[in-house]
């Protein structure tokens, strides 16, 4: 499994797996290092899901608390420290969203800015080598299936919201997601 | 509740990672992962392989006070200001500029042509970026400011003073002389690639400065304290 070296702000390499191992050992400098290098990106991910800056700050705060406390559950041998961090932040953001009553959060005005399902969205993928493989496989999906997956992941949309956004029946959207995931898995494996 | 069929289990794990399950279903998946290794593997697979989609989200500056809040709530001792003093300032500048060159190159590489049409979203979104070196009163370099083509402002401390108790560093830019300085927010003294508030505009020779203000920022909306660093933007190649 490839580990992704995240470039730090000064152009050096930031070893996120080593930093997480440091956190597990109780090294507070390691948590600070993760924050310095990744907080803005993670804040952006949270903002895109919860749509409110105050909530996103709370999500980031709660996520870093959890990163510190659960760092010992991350297995550095498996690599993908950035993905682990992302999942902590995303899960927290989604929990907050659900507590608020997700259906209230849909804001078309906010969505209109760089929607996740427009054709050029794939241009903006990062994380280097993993992005190329994902983009290649996403391009092989039917448009509808790809859009559902991207709207769910990037914007935190529910099945119901995706159905409303695409103007398609709920059952159809559920099927698109499932078929899309199956095809994506086959391609990525 | 957790399917035995591998395809169904993989799809459930995918839906969990996509955030499409209900709260109850998500909790059930998390509980099951503790003893179902195959499910845990499926979840990790999707978390890892979908992670690049996070690149769709624009980076945002967290509240400048957020780190202190995290530190306090975890009972960690306050971290001393990190300045990377072991490297010469020239090397630090190169590294910082190198990061932007790499980012611009990476964006160029991933530019995609779908259906034969290259979509240029922001019109004029080329790979131009600006940098400004903010010099301290003694002419030594204090901060590097990097401005992206999307007007994101990234700050790195080369040699930053400790603002002292009850004080903070505030970043400003001047676009319209008549309008006066515009605050780009408070910046931590340990800034390393710190994202300030995006600038409303950017152009060659645009002025950036850092002033010393009360801990909550200037009460007047203009710099009130001494200017600790000042510089002008130049286009980065």
SSE run of chain B:
HHHHHEEEEEEEEEEE
- Determine the number of helices of chain A (DSSP H or I, runs of at least 4 residues): 9
Overall outline of chain B: elongated
Helix content class of chain A: 55-70%
Any idea what the shape of chain A is?
globular
Stretches with pLDDT under 50, minimum 5 residues of chain A: 1-5, 7-11, 108-112
> Can you summarize the main beta sheet of chain B?
5 strands, antiparallel
Q: Considering DSSP H and I runs of 4 or more, what fraction of the residues of chain B is helical?
A: 25-40%
Radius of gyration of chain B: 23 Å
Q: How are strands sequenced across the largest beta sheet of chain B?
A: 8-5-4-3-11
Instruction: Please state the oligomeric state of the protein chains shown.
Output: heterodimer
| Low-pLDDT residue intervals, each spanning 5 or more residues of chain B | 80-128
The spatial strand order of the largest sheet of chain A comes to: 1-2
Strand content of chain A: under 5%
Can you describe this structure in just a few lines?
The complex is a heterodimer of chains A (189) and B (237). Chain A has 189 residues and is mainly α.
Structural features, described:
The complex is a heterodimer of chains A (189) and B (237). Chain A is mostly helical and 189 residues long. Chain A has 9 helices and 2 strands. The two termini of chain A are 12 Å apart. Chain B is α+β, with helices and mostly antiparallel strands. In chain B, 29% of the residues lie in helices and 25% in strands. In chain B, the strands form 3 sheets. Chain B has a 5-stranded antiparallel sheet with strand order 8-5-4-3-11, with helices on one face. Chain B has a 4-stranded antiparallel sheet with strand order 7-6-9-10, with no helix packed on it. In chain B, helix 1 crosses helix 3. About 21% of the residues of chain B have low confidence. At the A-B interface, helix 2, helix 3, helix 4, helix 6 and helix 7 of A face helix 1, helix 3, helix 4, helix 5 and strand 8 of B.
């Amino acid at each position: 499994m490839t580990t992704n070296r995240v470039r730090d702000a000064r152009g050096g390499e930031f070893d996120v797996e080593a930093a997480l191992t440091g956190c597990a050992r109780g090294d507070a400098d390691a948590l600070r290092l993760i924050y310095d290098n990744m907080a803005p990106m993670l804040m952006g991910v949270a903002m895109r899901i919860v749509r409110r800056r105050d909530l996103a700050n709370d999500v980031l705060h709660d996520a870093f608390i959890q990163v510190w406390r659960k760092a010992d559950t991350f297995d550095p041998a498996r690599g993908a420290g950035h993905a682990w961090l992302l999942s902590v932040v995303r899960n927290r953001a989604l929990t907050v969203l659900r507590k608020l009553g997700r259906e209230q959060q849909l804001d078309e005005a906010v969505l209109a800015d760089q929607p996740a399902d427009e054709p050029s969205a794939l241009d903006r993928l990062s994380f280097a080598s993993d992005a190329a493989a994902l983009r290649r496989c996403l391009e092989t999906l039917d448009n509808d299936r790809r859009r559902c997956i991207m709207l769910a992941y990037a914007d935190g949309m529910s099945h119901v919201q995706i159905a409303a956004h695409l103007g398609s029946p709920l059952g159809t959207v559920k099927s698109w997601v499932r078929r899309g995931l199956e095809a994506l898995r086959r391609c990525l494996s | 509740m957790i399917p035995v069929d591998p395809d169904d289990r993989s799809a459930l794990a995918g839906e969990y990672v996509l955030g499409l399950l209900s709260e109850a279903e998500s909790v059930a998946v998390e509980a099951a992962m503790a003893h179902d290794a195959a499910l845990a593997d499926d979840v990790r697979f999707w978390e890892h392989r979908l992670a690049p989609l996070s690149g769709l989200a624009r980076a945002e500056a967290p509240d400048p006070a957020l780190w202190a809040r995290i530190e306090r709530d975890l009972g960690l001792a306050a971290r001393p200001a990190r300045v990377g003093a072991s490297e010469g300032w020239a090397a630090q500048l190169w590294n910082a500029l190198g990061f932007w060159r790499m980012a611009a190159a990476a964006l160029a590489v991933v530019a995609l042509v779908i259906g034969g049409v290259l979509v240029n979203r922001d019109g004029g979104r080329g790979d131009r970026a600006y940098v400004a070196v903010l010099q301290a009163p003694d002419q030594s370099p204090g901060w590097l400011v990097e401005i992206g083509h999307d007007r994101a402002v990234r700050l790195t401390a080369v040699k930053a003073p400790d603002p002292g108790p009850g004080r903070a560093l505030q970043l400003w830019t001047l676009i319209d002389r008549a309008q006066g300085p515009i605050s780009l927010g408070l910046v931590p003294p340990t800034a390393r690639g710190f994202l300030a508030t995006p600038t409303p505009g950017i152009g060659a020779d645009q002025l950036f400065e850092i002033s010393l203000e009360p801990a909550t920022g200037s009460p007047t909306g203009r710099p009130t304290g001494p200017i600790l660093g000042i510089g002008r933007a130049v286009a980065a190649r």
